[in-house]
Amino acid sequence: MKPVLALVGRPNVGKSTLFNRLTKSRDAIVADHAGLTRDRHYGDGRLGERDYIVVDTGGFEPTAESGIYKEMAKQTRQAVAEADAVIFVVDARAGVSGQDHDIARYLRSAGKKLLLAVNKAEGMQDAPALAEFYELGLGAPRPLSASHGQGIRSLLEAALEGFDFGPDEDAALDDTERPIRLAVAGRPNVGKSTLINTWLGEERLVAFDLPGTTRDAISVPFERGGQKFELIDTAGLRRKGRVFEAIEKFSVVKTLQAIADANVVLLLLDATQGVTDQDAHIAGYILDAGRAVVLAVNKWDAVDAYQREMLQRQVEQRLAFLKFAPVLHISAIKRQGLGPVWKAIADAWASATKQLPTPVLTRLLQEAVQFQQPKRAGAFRPKLRYAHQGGRNPPVIVIHGNSLDHLTDAYKRFLEGRFRAHFQLSGTPLRIEMKSSRNPFTEKAS
User: What is residue 116's predicted lDDT score, i.e. its pLDDT?
Assistant: First the structure.
């Protein structure tokens, strides 16, 4: 799973600027659960072939006993608990403060990998002013400038050192042999633990730990109808015997890690609560990760006909970007509607890994053009020549031709619909890439 880097420090030291630098300004996913006045922000980052998750926190005052600062301190402690490595950000211009000492004292007791990042240190790499930061007892200070991008790479190299970024253990297995990694994601109290307990009870399965990840993640292997599955924990499971005791404990980091590590994600919605912003955030992350997805609306038995109609409209409107995903209505506690869920999961995985032959793709492309040609762009009309598969899970279709950068989004959606209908793709994103041929006459002679 992706390692987690938490940014910690007092207010106005540049944590958010560093966060944007580490995530290349990607919008953070916000944990907007109720009752919190300041939230942790989450984003993805990448260094070479290594992926990681960054957690941004508010100003940290470990000794705060009341009010907003106590809530912010609670959020920061949670971020530290979730993290694999903690980056303590201080201000080179302001120097060491008493609050920095309080934070350093707490971090030393947390038992996490620590890095001391001295921000706003433009041109101060060898300045004597950096020496005072040694008194925090966190090792050598690392000067950087988040706003100018100086020292970022060396900080990341040190933060990610020692983590396993090796190849997937199942990479050598055929898609029919490897287990389907299934993540059950959703907000707190939507019924994840009830659903998982129902599954295990019906199938008479034993849960056990699968070690080897960076964060003691737990997965639950089981088999149904001859198909092997591997349920990836999204809710802070711990040890055998008490596996499902704390499953409703909410952790954004664990959800993001589970989605990134899964083949198929079952996004569980609560029929009594409707589709919330948090549901949409998780759904957006699933789409960005390119994961196959099935939507299951739990507690369907607890709402009346009017609520069901309103909920269906909410799903169509707020989760319109997942319109390719099947929507199923279940009751985990009453064990209703669970059979179709398994079929939808298997269909989604089969669609995500389906082989799309080049001759068939090219024929479908040509038939689509004959049915409806793309609009002209000035004096030229985009010309689509042939298509081939460029990847799986999610499936990628690469279309070659001329002037393809002028194709409209509407026409791309039209092509996607034709491909989906023919191959019966369900529950998986489909990405279409355009590659235009180079025109040698547009290049100036040297």
Answer: 93
Q: Say which residue the tokens 């930061």 belong to.
A: 133
Angle made by CA atoms 418, 419, 421, in degrees to the nearest 5 = 65
- Would you say how long the chain is, in residues? 446
Q: How far, in Å, CA of 261 to CA of 239, rounded? A: 20
* In contact, 55 and 42? CB cutoff 8 Å: yes
**Is residue 49 classed exposed, middle or buried when 0-12, 13-18 and 19+ CB atoms within 10 A define those classes?**
exposed
Closest CA to 133 of 163, 103, 169: 103
Cα separation, 286 vs 265, in Å, equals: 8
* Average pLDDT in the chain: 79
**390 close to 397: Cβ distance less than 8 angstroms:** yes
Q: Which range among 21-25, 29-33, 280-284 shows the weakest confidence by mean pLDDT? A: 29-33
Map tokens 């059979």 to a residue.
Answer: 339
More confident residue, 177 or 374: 374
Sheet of strand 219-224, all strands in order from the earlier edge strand to the far edge: 219-224, 227-232, 180-185, 264-270, 292-298, 327-329
What band does 167 get if pLDDT is binned at 50, 70 and 90? low
